[in-house]
Write the structure tokens for this entry.
Amino acid sequence: MTIKKQYQEIISFLESNKNKKVASILSELKSMTESKVRTKTFVKDTDGNVIAIFCYFHKQFELVSKVPYGIKKTSTTGLNTMCKVGVKAWTKQQKSIKQVDGIILEKLVNDEIKKDEIDEIKENMISVIKEKTFEEFKREEEYTEEEKQELRKFEEEN
């Protein structure tokens, strides 16, 4: 059975807590599913041109004049929600995460780990993959002081 991407985190959480009572994990589950409201994910100038986008990989606003974004006709801005570097990093991250199950199965077969350690090890491996990928593809644009102030303003307002 294939699980929709938007529910994978919840399913993983539930699988790792399947022997716990619902009451003990309900608050954590609610925080995972609550809306992460961001009032705006992009900023336009007075002429209606997009000047900054909140990159969902880097979790920060980026000026489109400095950071390349792919075209996405179905979005409000006409641009992707992740910069091109973010898309590349996210894709690499997902590929590595998909390999985790095979690595764990091999370790289990070779008696390197015990069955009851699988969830914790998998969670740790995925966490490391995400951290390494983020570090490898961290954005370090050369912004002028004025641009930095403008980006801080976008963050505060949104």
Summary: The first helix runs from residue 8 to 16.
